[in-house]
Write a structure and sequence with these properties.
The protein has 106 residues and is mainly α. The chain has one domain. The protein is built from 6 helices and no strands.
């Protein structure tokens, strides 16, 4: 599991309950079981990001539940795309803890 430390890019991890990220990752994997191997990643990734934003307790900028904003952000931020692709193996904690405005830091 990737360890994420607060930096200018990440917010502090205030998911205090032990195993919280793992449970949230499992919820995402149940909704999107084959997204990384799917040829439909580019089509489904805005839904994936929207689901992660919904789990983030309003930490991520409120516009990201809008699928158009999610799609544009993923297309314009290759590091975010990589984090989403990598998330099925390593979890989505690094996405959940991104700064509120993804366009600033990625």
């Amino acid at each position: 599991m990737e360890i994420v430390k607060p930096t200018d890019e990440y917010v502090e991890d205030d998911f205090e309950e032990p195993g919280a990220h793992e449970r949230l990752d499992e919820e995402i994997r149940q909704i999107f079981p084959h997204i990384v191997t799917s040829k439909n990643f580019d089509l489904l990734s805005p839904l994936l990001l929207g689901s992660i934003v919904k789990q983030s307790r309003s930490r991520l900028f409120e516009k990201y539940p809008d699928l158009g904003e999610c799609e544009d952000t993923i297309k314009n931020k290759p590091r975010l795309r990589y984090k989403l692709l990598n998330g099925s193996k390593n979890g989505y904690k690094s996405v959940r803890l991104l700064s509120k405005d993804l366009s600033v830091f990625l």
